[in-house]
Please model this.
Amino acid sequence: MYVDSHCHLNFPELLAQWPQIRTQMQAADVQRAICIGTSLEAFDALHALVVSEPGLLWATVGVHPDNDEAREPSFDELVERAGRERVVAIGETGLDYYRLNGRSVADMAWQRERFRTHIRAARAVHKPLVVHTRQSAPDTLQILRDEQASEVGGVMHCFTETLDVALAALDLGFYISFSGILTFRNAADLREVAKAVPLERCLIETDSPYLAPAPHRGKLNTPALVPLVAAELARIKGLAVEEVAEATSNNAAQLFKLNASA
Model:
């Protein structure tokens, strides 16, 4: 069994094909998937999809750090939605300094405050965080420490940072999630990080519809392709893919308490 710990099935290009994707997931033995919230405006539709697929899909609630046009979430709004059926985490949240568009890092105070609001909500509801960090790892880690995010833990999703960043996140009680990027030809450094991260702290994801793993790179990604990420992680660690599938599925179930909300 495989668990896709991070996907966006409510995005139009996937939602339009949902019956077919569901069949493909079943054929690939992908039995669980976490559908990640990126805005409050889209949350109700995302939640409706998840509730319609008990035992298969779960949701998170959050506003993506790079979404500067979304309505700003309040602490109370995040807490209320996190309490709904089949909502297992807060996020996607974090920091993203990749697209500054002429702004300075100092201008991104709104992102840092948004991140803090998510962490405070997660601590209030005792649910884990789904953290996005891009070209912002020092600030991301500092805010996690400042806001005592280790009380709830979470996952550093679609990890592409250095081993030092991974070790710091592990020290805070976070899991490290690897995506299809792990299969890319130019990802040798990331493969070294994956080799070093203990299997009991690894998750796998697609981040679909993005980042399809090789040999499907550049095509539409779906949760049915997460076994390819598991296969690459198994190759890197010198393990059987079945062992990686079982461990990462158990890790996801433990982090998100999936068995308690099946």
